[in-house]
Amino acid sequence: MVKDYFRLAYRSARQRKLRSWLTMIGIFVGIAAVVALVSLSQGMQNAIAEQFVSLGSDKLVVQSAETGFGPPGTDVSNPLVSKDKDVIEKVNGVDVAVGRLIRSSKIEFEDEVKYDYLLSMPDDGTSKEWDLAVEANDYEAEFGRMLKRTDKSKVVVGYNYYDDYFDTPITVRDKIKIWDQNFEVVGILKKSGNPIKDNSIIIIESVFRDIMSIGDEYDLIAVKVLVEGDLSLVEERINKELRKQRNVDEGKEDFSVQTPGKILETLNSILLIVQGVLIGIAGISLLVGGIGIMNTMYTAVTERTREIGIMKATGAQNKQILLLFLIESGFLGFFGGVIGISLGFGISKMVEVISFQIYGSYLIKADFSIGLLLGMLFFGFIVGAMSGVFPAKQASKLRPVDALRK
Q1: Which of 153, 165, 189, 319 is deepest in the core (most CB within 10 A)?
Q2: Which domain does 141 fall in, by range?
Q3: For residue 75, with 0-12 CB atoms within 10 Å meaning exposed, 13-18 middle and 19 or more buried, which class applies?
Q4: In this structure, are 210 and 140 located in the same domain?
Q5: Residue 231 shares a structural domain with residue 285
Q6: DSSP string spanning 69-98?
Q7: CB count, 10 Å around CB of 266?
Q8: How far apart are CA 345 and CA 373, in angstroms?
Q9: pLDDT < 50: residue spans in the chain
Q10: What is the pLDDT of residues 197-240, one digit of tens each?
């Protein structure tokens, strides 16, 4: 009976408790790493997807093609300019376009100096531009109020400035210096969990350009289309018109037009690459664990040679001996998987809780699927069983007479 094989395998593992635990270490460390990494990366993908869904499916982002992993406008030799924005606004299907500036700046509060991001708000466009900037970034004040177009000497700061950015928390009506010019804080944004947003300062565009000596360039241009279903069509039109405006050929664009879906695909691709590399590293632990199981099973064959001889002398066939040792090695892999899944669950939940305490939102959240858990259990059993193939074959080929002599 199959249950007898499992009973014998369990009894054998219990008789060698310390060795069994040491054997399973490599397996459960590897599986714990895989479970934690996959669940956290999947949770992050879901969180990012939710952020893009909240933006709506009627928006596009235009920025320089030279922008890499840094903020828009960083080390860009051919930036977007106000003429590009004017061209975009005239494209058929475009409702409104708003240019934004995002730059690192010197920020001083009570003799403490730091450098972080300034974000502009338009003060010379239409009310639609202002509304799009607020909507696309989900700006909402936790304390005080949002900026007004006339707030030339006022700013709104991210939540971290109120929390623990400087030694002394910033509150509404406090004075801060930006490039040695004084500004009054009129509002503090709600905590978003996005470090860039929570660490940023929002300032009127004309003032931004003045204090940082910026001409008519933009770091990005946000676009809202008239009809959601026309997003791809409007994207093609914008590409065509900007190629004319910037005098570049198709395929050699020095700008990029991205939909939320495209940006999400790019981020997911990056996450998958990182996830693959980390899982590959975790796979080394599984390989080490498999070698440990193989070593343990070879030792078990040596120790139980007489027992094998007795089983064969009483009628046990080679395939039965083979199956017994395969189940025993798979048993070690399976329980290594159970422990690994438990550890992985605990690690990822701990990371989730810590990130929530730091960022105030579930930007990093563990997402467990039944498929992942069952897959890891099955994988642990298979790794164990495969590691026991050669020792099991050795045990099954022992002759009863030779085994009983030892």
Answers
A1: 189
A2: 58-259
A3: exposed
A4: yes
A5: no
A6: SS-TTTT-SS-EEHHHHHHHHTSTTEEEEE
A7: 11
A8: 10
A9: 69
A10: 889 999 999 999 999 999 889 999 999 888 765 778 888 999 99
